[in-house]
Amino acid sequence: MTNDLSQTSDPWRETPAAPSPVTPPKRQEADANVLWAALLIGAGVLLLAAQFGVRWGAFLWPLWIIVPGVALLLLGYTVGRAVAEPLVVLGSIVSSTGLLLFYANASGHWASWAYLWALIAPTSIGLGLWLLGQVKRRSDLVKSGGVMVKIGLILFAAFGAFFELVIGISGLGLGRYAWPILLIGLGALFVIKAVRNNARRE
User: Fold this and answer.
1) 16, 42, 124, 176: which is deepest, by most CB within 10 A?
2) What's the rounded Cα separation, in Å, for the pair 122 and 156?
3) Is 94 helix (H, G, I), strand (E, B) or coil?
């Protein structure tokens, strides 16, 4: 009886941590099968199109970067927790770099790399971790990955607007109207912020 009282009244006694949810092996196997199936179907479509005379070599050389990146992602989504995150981060960087190289090579818009980097880091890294959190049922990765994606998209939009509209690296700039419009926009933001603050105080 005294032992029971001492155990319940001890304020320094550590309570065991709740076990983290573990994805069932069958669920992991099913997710891995879906990912590998998507990769194989994509490769089959490319090979089939080549049989009909589509010349991929001229603009699909980034596949040599995309495919290893996707393979790293698939491996990261199927292995254990210890090495999953590093593989997913590396795979996200490599595969997204390949995709953006494909876009730049196909469109000739290489100047866009002035702001496309934001889609690699932190956007693609966050997306990879978010997907890993979904697959492994880890809410911490879902939350942190989502935050990284939001930050990356904001950086992409901000730098894209600056380089395309203000500087006009693609010939789409606003020219002499860019800075006046930018200043007016910033002023409008300050006015909206001041109005909201006054409304909250009242």
Assistant:
1) 124
2) 10
3) helix
Asked whether the predicted pLDDT for residue 130 surpasses 50, the reply is yes
Could you give the CA distance from residue 182 to residue 163 in angstroms, rounded to a whole number? 13
Q: Token pair of 78, please?
A: 């199927």
Give CA–CA dist 78/84, Å, rounded.
8
Q: For the chain, what percent of residues have pLDDT higher than 90?
A: 30
Per the CB < 8 A criterion, the answer to whether 128 and 88 are in contact is yes
Residues 70 and 95 sit within 8 Å (Cβ to Cβ): yes
List the one residue out of 97, 118, 105 whose CA is nearest residue 160: 118
How many residues in total does the chain contain?
Answer: 202
3-state secondary structure of 13: coil
Pairs from 2-9 (Cβ < 8 Å, separation ≥ 24): none
